[in-house]
Design goal:
The structure is a single chain. The protein is of the alpha+beta class and about 160 residues long. It is about 20% helix and about 35% strand. The strands form 3 sheets. It has a 6-stranded mixed beta barrel. A hairpin with a 5-residue loop joins strand 4 and strand 5. The termini are far apart.
Length: about 160
């Protein structure tokens, strides 16, 4: 490969990665909101418009899915800010606020879960660390949707 071709390739790759807000994933086309069944229980994800007004308080837990594939086929890596929710359309971006210490951060919902009664959302260990509850394991949080979808499918919350 000559220097000009190498330089052009490097430039195109850097433009591609610069266009990603979180470069650990490839943008998903569309929304995953089809009903699904797990362990005999049927789940009905909400539609995009309902999700855009979503805000709920509940218990967060954390998990590490390093290298595992999330529900929309994207790998989930250690150190990244991702989450799992049973009924939000995938993918979406949420703000999670720790109701006990006031800390908050954003995470990409790209997986399904938690499937333990009484839990609202599973977050990566990086999110749990940012929110300050890695030692406790569980925490009271508020979850609000910021947007649903990627690229041309992205719709912002009001």
């Amino acid at each position: 490969m000559n220097l000009r071709a190498f330089t052009l390739s490097a430039l195109l790759l850097s433009l591609f990665f610069a266009s990603c807000q979180q470069c650990w994933y490839e943008p998903y086309r569309g929304y995953k909101k089809a009903p699904y069944t797990l362990k005999g229980e049927r789940y009905y994800p909400m539609d995009v418009q309902t999700a855009l007004n979503y805000s709920e308080e509940g218990i967060a837990s954390f998990y590490e899915a390093d290298g595992d594939i999330g529900a929309i086929g994207q790998p989930l890596y250690e150190g990244e800010f991702y989450a799992a929710h049973r009924t939000l359309p995938l993918p979406c971006q949420v703000r999670i606020k720790n109701l006990n210490n006031g800390r908050s951060c954003e995470a990409r919902v790209a997986d399904r879960g938690p499937f333990i009664h009484g839990r609202l959302i599973d977050v990566s260990s990086a999110v749990a660390e940012e929110l300050g509850f890695t030692r406790k394991g569980l925490e009271r949080v508020r979850v609000e949707v910021l947007w649903v979808g990627d690229g041309k499918y992205r719709v912002e919350a009001p």
